[in-house]
Amino acid sequence: MILLATLISYPRAIILGLLQGVAELFPVSSLGHSVILPKLFGWDIHQNDKYFLTFLVATHLATAIVLLGFFWRDWVRILKGIGRSLRDREIRADDTDAKLGWLLIVGTIPAGILGLALEHKLRAVFASATSAAVFLTLNGLLLYGTERLRRRAPDTEGDDDTRIARKMSWRGAVLVGAAQALALIPGLSRSGATMGGGLLVGLSNKDAARFAFLLATPIIGAAAILKLPELFGPEGDGVRGPALVGALCSAVTAYLAVRFLMRFFETKTLTPFAIYCFFAGLAATVYLVA
Amino acid sequence: MRNTKLLVAAAVVIGVALVVIGIVYLAEPAKSLPSFFPGHEAGSAHHHVKHGIASFFVGLAAFAFAWFQTGPKNKTA
Questions:
Q1: Annotated domain spans of chain B
Q2: N or C: less crowded end of chain A, CB within 10 Å?
Q3: Where are the transmembrane segments (chain A) (predicted)?
Q4: CA–CA distance from A7 to each of A38, A141, B16, B43 (Å)?
Protein backbone atom coordinates (compact mmCIF):
# COMPACT_ATOMS: atom_id res chain seq x y z
CA MET A 1 0.00 0.00 0.00
CA ILE A 2 2.91 2.33 0.75
CA LEU A 3 4.10 1.64 -2.78
CA LEU A 4 0.71 2.65 -4.20
CA ALA A 5 0.66 5.85 -2.17
CA THR A 6 4.02 6.85 -3.55
CA LEU A 7 2.92 6.16 -7.13
CA ILE A 8 0.39 8.98 -6.99
CA SER A 9 1.90 11.44 -4.55
CA TYR A 10 -0.07 14.52 -3.56
CA PRO A 11 1.83 16.87 -5.91
CA ARG A 12 1.23 14.44 -8.78
CA ALA A 13 -2.43 14.12 -7.78
CA ILE A 14 -2.76 17.91 -7.90
CA ILE A 15 -1.15 18.12 -11.35
CA LEU A 16 -3.20 15.21 -12.73
CA GLY A 17 -6.40 16.57 -11.17
CA LEU A 18 -5.90 20.07 -12.57
CA LEU A 19 -5.11 18.56 -15.96
CA GLN A 20 -8.06 16.17 -15.91
CA GLY A 21 -10.60 18.92 -15.22
CA VAL A 22 -9.40 20.97 -18.17
CA ALA A 23 -8.70 18.18 -20.61
CA GLU A 24 -11.98 16.33 -19.97
CA LEU A 25 -13.97 19.30 -21.27
CA PHE A 26 -11.53 20.86 -23.73
CA PRO A 27 -11.62 18.83 -26.95
CA VAL A 28 -8.07 17.59 -26.43
CA SER A 29 -8.53 14.09 -24.87
CA SER A 30 -8.08 13.91 -21.11
CA LEU A 31 -7.26 10.21 -21.28
CA GLY A 32 -4.62 10.84 -23.92
CA HIS A 33 -2.99 13.52 -21.77
CA SER A 34 -3.12 11.39 -18.64
CA VAL A 35 -1.35 8.62 -20.58
CA ILE A 36 1.23 10.78 -22.34
CA LEU A 37 2.22 13.24 -19.59
CA PRO A 38 3.23 10.70 -16.91
CA LYS A 39 5.40 9.03 -19.55
CA LEU A 40 6.97 12.37 -20.57
CA PHE A 41 7.58 13.25 -16.89
CA GLY A 42 9.02 9.80 -16.25
CA TRP A 43 6.31 8.91 -13.70
CA ASP A 44 5.68 5.22 -13.19
CA ILE A 45 1.92 5.49 -13.81
CA HIS A 46 0.08 3.37 -16.36
CA GLN A 47 -3.48 3.93 -17.48
CA ASN A 48 -4.57 0.34 -16.89
CA ASP A 49 -3.19 0.19 -13.33
CA LYS A 50 -6.00 -0.40 -10.84
CA TYR A 51 -4.97 2.46 -8.55
CA PHE A 52 -4.81 4.91 -11.45
CA LEU A 53 -8.26 3.90 -12.66
CA THR A 54 -9.53 4.43 -9.13
CA PHE A 55 -7.94 7.87 -9.13
CA LEU A 56 -9.62 8.68 -12.45
CA VAL A 57 -13.02 7.61 -11.05
CA ALA A 58 -12.76 10.37 -8.44
CA THR A 59 -11.71 13.04 -10.93
CA HIS A 60 -14.42 12.01 -13.41
CA LEU A 61 -17.06 12.12 -10.70
CA ALA A 62 -15.91 15.63 -9.77
CA THR A 63 -16.15 16.72 -13.42
CA ALA A 64 -19.65 15.24 -13.74
CA ILE A 65 -20.83 17.01 -10.56
CA VAL A 66 -19.45 20.31 -11.86
CA LEU A 67 -21.21 19.84 -15.22
CA LEU A 68 -24.45 18.93 -13.46
CA GLY A 69 -24.18 22.00 -11.25
CA PHE A 70 -23.27 24.32 -14.13
CA PHE A 71 -26.27 23.21 -16.21
CA TRP A 72 -28.53 22.53 -13.20
CA ARG A 73 -31.38 24.81 -14.28
CA ASP A 74 -31.24 23.35 -17.79
CA TRP A 75 -31.40 19.80 -16.42
CA VAL A 76 -34.44 20.69 -14.30
CA ARG A 77 -36.20 22.08 -17.39
CA ILE A 78 -35.15 19.09 -19.48
CA LEU A 79 -36.41 16.57 -16.90
CA LYS A 80 -39.70 18.44 -16.63
CA GLY A 81 -39.94 18.36 -20.43
CA ILE A 82 -39.37 14.60 -20.48
CA GLY A 83 -42.03 14.20 -17.79
CA ARG A 84 -44.47 16.34 -19.81
CA SER A 85 -43.90 14.32 -22.95
CA LEU A 86 -44.45 11.03 -21.12
CA ARG A 87 -47.66 12.37 -19.60
CA ASP A 88 -48.97 13.64 -22.96
CA ARG A 89 -47.57 10.61 -24.85
CA GLU A 90 -46.10 12.88 -27.50
CA ILE A 91 -43.08 15.12 -28.01
CA ARG A 92 -44.73 18.33 -29.12
CA ALA A 93 -42.92 20.33 -31.81
CA ASP A 94 -42.92 23.44 -29.63
CA ASP A 95 -41.68 21.64 -26.50
CA THR A 96 -37.94 22.29 -26.81
CA ASP A 97 -37.08 20.86 -23.40
CA ALA A 98 -38.80 17.55 -24.13
CA LYS A 99 -37.16 17.22 -27.55
CA LEU A 100 -33.73 18.06 -26.13
CA GLY A 101 -34.23 15.60 -23.27
CA TRP A 102 -35.10 12.74 -25.61
CA LEU A 103 -32.25 13.69 -27.96
CA LEU A 104 -29.89 13.34 -24.99
CA ILE A 105 -31.38 9.95 -24.08
CA VAL A 106 -31.16 8.74 -27.69
CA GLY A 107 -27.54 9.96 -27.86
CA THR A 108 -26.58 8.34 -24.56
CA ILE A 109 -27.78 4.83 -25.50
CA PRO A 110 -25.21 4.10 -28.26
CA ALA A 111 -22.45 5.70 -26.19
CA GLY A 112 -23.31 3.44 -23.25
CA ILE A 113 -23.57 0.26 -25.35
CA LEU A 114 -20.36 0.91 -27.30
CA GLY A 115 -18.58 1.89 -24.09
CA LEU A 116 -19.55 -1.38 -22.42
CA ALA A 117 -18.68 -3.47 -25.45
CA LEU A 118 -15.37 -1.87 -26.38
CA GLU A 119 -13.89 -0.20 -23.28
CA HIS A 120 -11.59 -2.99 -22.10
CA LYS A 121 -10.57 -4.15 -25.57
CA LEU A 122 -9.67 -0.69 -26.86
CA ARG A 123 -7.83 0.35 -23.72
CA ALA A 124 -5.84 -2.86 -23.76
CA VAL A 125 -4.86 -2.46 -27.41
CA PHE A 126 -4.09 1.28 -27.28
CA ALA A 127 -2.57 1.46 -23.80
CA SER A 128 0.82 2.87 -24.74
CA ALA A 129 1.80 6.52 -24.55
CA THR A 130 3.08 6.36 -28.14
CA SER A 131 -0.28 5.24 -29.54
CA ALA A 132 -1.99 7.95 -27.44
CA ALA A 133 0.36 10.53 -28.97
CA VAL A 134 -0.42 9.28 -32.49
CA PHE A 135 -4.16 9.42 -31.80
CA LEU A 136 -3.80 12.91 -30.32
CA THR A 137 -2.32 13.99 -33.67
CA LEU A 138 -5.25 12.30 -35.41
CA ASN A 139 -7.65 14.09 -33.03
CA GLY A 140 -6.22 17.38 -34.28
CA LEU A 141 -6.91 16.35 -37.88
CA LEU A 142 -10.45 15.23 -36.99
CA LEU A 143 -11.25 18.53 -35.28
CA TYR A 144 -9.88 20.48 -38.21
CA GLY A 145 -11.74 18.25 -40.66
CA THR A 146 -15.09 18.78 -38.95
CA GLU A 147 -14.60 22.54 -39.02
CA ARG A 148 -13.82 22.34 -42.73
CA LEU A 149 -16.70 19.97 -43.51
CA ARG A 150 -19.44 21.82 -41.64
CA ARG A 151 -22.29 22.30 -44.00
CA ARG A 152 -23.22 25.97 -43.86
CA ALA A 153 -23.38 29.07 -41.74
CA PRO A 154 -24.87 28.10 -38.38
CA ASP A 155 -28.43 28.96 -37.42
CA THR A 156 -28.51 31.87 -34.93
CA GLU A 157 -32.26 32.33 -34.50
CA GLY A 158 -33.98 31.58 -31.18
CA ASP A 159 -32.36 30.46 -27.94
CA ASP A 160 -29.67 27.78 -27.66
CA ASP A 161 -31.94 24.84 -26.84
CA THR A 162 -34.49 25.75 -29.51
CA ARG A 163 -31.76 25.76 -32.14
CA ILE A 164 -30.38 22.42 -30.95
CA ALA A 165 -33.85 20.82 -30.89
CA ARG A 166 -34.59 22.19 -34.36
CA LYS A 167 -31.30 21.20 -35.98
CA MET A 168 -30.58 17.86 -34.35
CA SER A 169 -32.46 14.89 -35.81
CA TRP A 170 -32.93 11.56 -33.98
CA ARG A 171 -30.44 9.95 -36.33
CA GLY A 172 -28.02 12.82 -35.71
CA ALA A 173 -28.32 12.27 -31.95
CA VAL A 174 -27.50 8.56 -32.40
CA LEU A 175 -24.45 9.38 -34.54
CA VAL A 176 -23.18 12.09 -32.19
CA GLY A 177 -23.74 9.77 -29.22
CA ALA A 178 -21.93 6.92 -30.95
CA ALA A 179 -19.04 9.25 -31.76
CA GLN A 180 -18.43 9.52 -28.00
CA ALA A 181 -17.14 5.93 -28.13
CA LEU A 182 -14.07 7.29 -29.96
CA ALA A 183 -12.99 8.69 -26.60
CA LEU A 184 -12.33 5.13 -25.41
CA ILE A 185 -9.14 5.34 -27.46
CA PRO A 186 -6.59 7.40 -25.50
CA GLY A 187 -5.76 10.45 -27.62
CA LEU A 188 -9.21 10.91 -29.18
CA SER A 189 -11.47 13.36 -27.40
CA ARG A 190 -15.05 12.72 -26.28
CA SER A 191 -16.03 16.39 -26.31
CA GLY A 192 -14.16 16.83 -29.60
CA ALA A 193 -16.09 13.97 -31.21
CA THR A 194 -19.46 15.23 -29.98
CA MET A 195 -18.73 18.86 -30.84
CA GLY A 196 -17.50 17.79 -34.27
CA GLY A 197 -20.63 15.68 -34.76
CA GLY A 198 -22.76 18.64 -33.72
CA LEU A 199 -21.04 20.88 -36.27
CA LEU A 200 -21.62 18.31 -39.01
CA VAL A 201 -25.38 18.25 -38.34
CA GLY A 202 -25.48 22.04 -38.61
CA LEU A 203 -25.10 23.33 -35.04
CA SER A 204 -23.04 26.41 -34.24
CA ASN A 205 -19.86 25.92 -32.19
CA LYS A 206 -21.61 27.21 -29.08
CA ASP A 207 -24.64 24.93 -29.53
CA ALA A 208 -22.43 21.95 -30.35
CA ALA A 209 -20.43 22.58 -27.17
CA ARG A 210 -23.59 22.91 -25.12
CA PHE A 211 -25.02 19.67 -26.53
CA ALA A 212 -21.66 17.92 -25.97
CA PHE A 213 -21.52 18.97 -22.30
CA LEU A 214 -25.13 17.98 -21.66
CA LEU A 215 -24.55 14.64 -23.40
CA ALA A 216 -21.34 14.00 -21.46
CA THR A 217 -22.84 14.52 -18.01
CA PRO A 218 -24.86 11.28 -17.66
CA ILE A 219 -22.15 9.12 -19.25
CA ILE A 220 -19.24 10.51 -17.21
CA GLY A 221 -21.37 10.56 -14.05
CA ALA A 222 -22.77 7.05 -14.48
CA ALA A 223 -19.37 5.55 -15.32
CA ALA A 224 -17.87 7.18 -12.23
CA ILE A 225 -20.73 6.24 -9.90
CA LEU A 226 -20.60 2.60 -11.04
CA LYS A 227 -16.91 2.45 -10.16
CA LEU A 228 -17.27 4.40 -6.93
CA PRO A 229 -17.24 1.21 -4.78
CA GLU A 230 -13.65 0.67 -5.98
CA LEU A 231 -12.66 4.03 -4.52
CA PHE A 232 -14.17 3.19 -1.13
CA GLY A 233 -13.23 -0.51 -1.23
CA PRO A 234 -9.84 -2.18 -0.74
CA GLU A 235 -8.68 -1.01 -4.19
CA GLY A 236 -8.93 2.56 -2.96
CA ASP A 237 -6.50 1.98 -0.08
CA GLY A 238 -3.46 4.17 -0.47
CA VAL A 239 -4.93 6.22 -3.29
CA ARG A 240 -8.06 7.62 -1.59
CA GLY A 241 -6.35 10.75 -0.22
CA PRO A 242 -4.60 11.72 -3.46
CA ALA A 243 -7.83 10.89 -5.34
CA LEU A 244 -9.82 13.29 -3.18
CA VAL A 245 -7.25 16.05 -3.66
CA GLY A 246 -7.14 15.32 -7.39
CA ALA A 247 -10.95 15.41 -7.54
CA LEU A 248 -11.06 18.83 -5.85
CA CYS A 249 -8.46 20.20 -8.26
CA SER A 250 -10.33 18.63 -11.15
CA ALA A 251 -13.60 20.25 -10.00
CA VAL A 252 -12.01 23.71 -9.92
CA THR A 253 -10.48 23.46 -13.39
CA ALA A 254 -13.58 21.76 -14.83
CA TYR A 255 -15.72 24.69 -13.64
CA LEU A 256 -13.31 27.24 -15.10
CA ALA A 257 -13.07 25.20 -18.32
CA VAL A 258 -16.81 24.92 -18.95
CA ARG A 259 -17.29 28.62 -18.16
CA PHE A 260 -14.49 29.57 -20.49
CA LEU A 261 -15.57 27.25 -23.30
CA MET A 262 -19.20 28.37 -23.33
CA ARG A 263 -17.98 31.94 -23.88
CA PHE A 264 -15.14 30.96 -26.21
CA PHE A 265 -17.43 29.08 -28.61
CA GLU A 266 -19.79 32.05 -28.93
CA THR A 267 -17.33 33.49 -31.41
CA LYS A 268 -14.50 30.99 -31.91
CA THR A 269 -14.08 27.57 -33.52
CA LEU A 270 -12.40 24.22 -32.85
CA THR A 271 -9.40 25.20 -34.97
CA PRO A 272 -7.07 26.33 -32.11
CA PHE A 273 -7.64 22.98 -30.36
CA ALA A 274 -7.04 21.16 -33.64
CA ILE A 275 -3.70 22.93 -34.06
CA TYR A 276 -2.72 22.22 -30.45
CA CYS A 277 -3.63 18.50 -30.68
CA PHE A 278 -1.84 18.07 -34.01
CA PHE A 279 1.44 19.64 -32.96
CA ALA A 280 1.43 18.39 -29.33
CA GLY A 281 0.63 14.87 -30.55
CA LEU A 282 3.29 15.05 -33.24
CA ALA A 283 5.93 16.35 -30.84
CA ALA A 284 5.08 13.70 -28.25
CA THR A 285 5.18 10.96 -30.91
CA VAL A 286 8.61 12.06 -32.10
CA TYR A 287 9.90 12.31 -28.52
CA LEU A 288 8.53 8.93 -27.46
CA VAL A 289 9.64 7.08 -30.59
CA ALA A 290 13.13 8.62 -30.68
CA MET B 1 -51.32 1.67 -39.20
CA ARG B 2 -50.54 -2.04 -39.39
CA ASN B 3 -46.81 -1.23 -39.55
CA THR B 4 -47.11 0.93 -36.45
CA LYS B 5 -48.85 -1.86 -34.55
CA LEU B 6 -46.13 -4.30 -35.55
CA LEU B 7 -43.45 -1.79 -34.50
CA VAL B 8 -45.14 -1.25 -31.13
CA ALA B 9 -45.47 -5.00 -30.55
CA ALA B 10 -41.81 -5.52 -31.44
CA ALA B 11 -40.75 -2.66 -29.11
CA VAL B 12 -42.74 -4.15 -26.22
CA VAL B 13 -41.31 -7.64 -26.79
CA ILE B 14 -37.76 -6.27 -27.05
CA GLY B 15 -38.35 -4.08 -23.98
CA VAL B 16 -39.55 -7.03 -21.87
CA ALA B 17 -36.65 -9.20 -23.10
CA LEU B 18 -34.05 -6.53 -22.29
CA VAL B 19 -35.46 -5.82 -18.84
CA VAL B 20 -35.41 -9.57 -18.07
CA ILE B 21 -31.85 -9.85 -19.44
CA GLY B 22 -30.87 -6.87 -17.26
CA ILE B 23 -32.25 -8.60 -14.16
CA VAL B 24 -30.39 -11.82 -15.07
CA TYR B 25 -27.12 -9.87 -15.41
CA LEU B 26 -27.66 -8.20 -12.03
CA ALA B 27 -28.72 -11.37 -10.25
CA GLU B 28 -26.36 -13.99 -11.68
CA PRO B 29 -22.56 -14.17 -11.62
CA ALA B 30 -20.68 -14.48 -14.94
CA LYS B 31 -20.31 -18.27 -14.54
CA SER B 32 -24.11 -18.74 -14.28
CA LEU B 33 -25.04 -16.61 -17.28
CA PRO B 34 -26.29 -18.47 -20.35
CA SER B 35 -23.30 -19.23 -22.57
CA PHE B 36 -24.60 -17.04 -25.42
CA PHE B 37 -24.69 -13.95 -23.17
CA PRO B 38 -21.78 -11.52 -23.65
CA GLY B 39 -19.70 -11.68 -20.48
CA HIS B 40 -20.31 -15.37 -19.73
CA GLU B 41 -17.17 -16.76 -18.14
CA ALA B 42 -16.85 -20.22 -16.65
CA GLY B 43 -15.77 -20.14 -13.01
CA SER B 44 -16.09 -16.35 -12.64
CA ALA B 45 -18.06 -14.96 -9.69
CA HIS B 46 -18.01 -11.44 -11.16
CA HIS B 47 -21.38 -9.73 -11.60
CA HIS B 48 -21.72 -7.74 -14.82
CA VAL B 49 -23.57 -4.86 -13.17
CA LYS B 50 -22.93 -2.41 -16.01
CA HIS B 51 -24.29 -4.88 -18.59
CA GLY B 52 -27.38 -5.30 -16.42
CA ILE B 53 -28.00 -1.59 -16.02
CA ALA B 54 -27.43 -0.92 -19.74
CA SER B 55 -29.80 -3.71 -20.76
CA PHE B 56 -32.42 -2.49 -18.29
CA PHE B 57 -32.30 1.10 -19.53
CA VAL B 58 -32.37 0.18 -23.22
CA GLY B 59 -35.43 -1.96 -22.36
CA LEU B 60 -37.03 1.10 -20.78
CA ALA B 61 -36.20 3.10 -23.91
CA ALA B 62 -38.01 0.48 -26.01
CA PHE B 63 -41.07 0.84 -23.74
CA ALA B 64 -40.86 4.64 -24.11
CA PHE B 65 -40.84 4.25 -27.90
CA ALA B 66 -43.96 2.04 -27.74
CA TRP B 67 -45.58 4.53 -25.34
CA PHE B 68 -45.12 7.44 -27.76
CA GLN B 69 -46.15 5.41 -30.79
CA THR B 70 -49.49 4.59 -29.15
CA GLY B 71 -50.08 8.19 -28.00
CA PRO B 72 -53.08 10.32 -29.06
CA LYS B 73 -51.23 12.02 -31.93
CA ASN B 74 -50.32 8.72 -33.58
CA LYS B 75 -53.80 7.30 -33.04
CA THR B 76 -55.50 10.17 -34.87
CA ALA B 77 -52.90 10.27 -37.65
A1: 2-69
A2: C
A3: 12-31, 51-72, 100-118, 124-144, 170-188, 208-226, 238-258, 270-289
A4: 11, 34, 47, 33
